[in-house]
Amino acid sequence: MRPKKTRWVKCAPRERCFKPQCKPLSKCEGVYLSLDEFEAVRLACLEGLEQLDAAKLMKISRPTFSRILTSAQRKIADGLVNIKAIRIEGGCCKVGGRNRK
Predict the structure, then answer these.
(1) pLDDT tens sequence across 8-58
(2) Range list of β-strands (E), 1-101
């Protein structure tokens, strides 16, 4: 398997874990979003960028961006529907500004 290409993210999230109010964290199952998945959701869903433009900012191909985004959306849906904590950690990312190309 080839090594993953480094992905660029604008900034690390301020919070690393989101949990349901109805359960203590110790009793919650969790899903794990990598930093690149978090950034893909931020760019596509929050910023409203097209996948090609978002992929360029992360310095990855459009198909790779699509796979990352789909994976993130499944994990977030699993966390919301099945009342799980959503944790953000890991990934082969470098934090940098938006002006990097």
Answers:
(1) 666 666 667 888 877 777 777 899 998 899 999 999 999 999 999 999 998
(2) 7-9, 17-18, 30-33, 85-88, 93-95
